[in-house]
DUF4199 domain-containing protein
Amino acid sequence: MAENKGYMQRYAMLFGTYMGVFWISKFILFPVGLSVPFLLFLFMGLTLCVPFMGYYYARMYRNHVCGGGISFLHAWIFTVFMYIFAALLAAVAHYIYFRFIDHGYVLNTCETMVDTLAQSNMPGMDSYIATYQEALETARMLNPIDITLQMISSNVFWGSILAFPTALFVMRRKKDDAPAE
């Protein structure tokens, strides 16, 4: 790992930028998907692709930069850094959206959905509806920077968790480091 310390940050930034652009692209589908269910479904499907992208980029890093071998800790740190850089880039887009574009659209649409659910008079839904309405009231008190910080912390948290299985699948000993039989 000693020879790759300088490269780790560089490649984590590069692959994190690619992933951040992907996150921004799929984030565009979210507000539009609130009124077009297919696009919301596509957003969720693309979100499920994120761990596979993380694995692909970590494997590329292992094969092209680390000479085909990487330890668990090295792979985990690289993957966490990659998710952090992606989250930072996506945070810029999130802030711009919630500060200048949204004007309460997401919350109003969610509130309309909850009101429609409340009017359906489905049995046993009262506690869920009350919880949703309370969550919407709390969300209305957040300003764009609060929303952005919440989203970036969530992205980093889930990225660091996803980094564990990714590192387990990516780690590999170099062929010349393998014990002799």
Summary: The chain has a mean pLDDT of 92. The two ends are 25 Å apart (CA to CA). The chain has six helices and no strands.
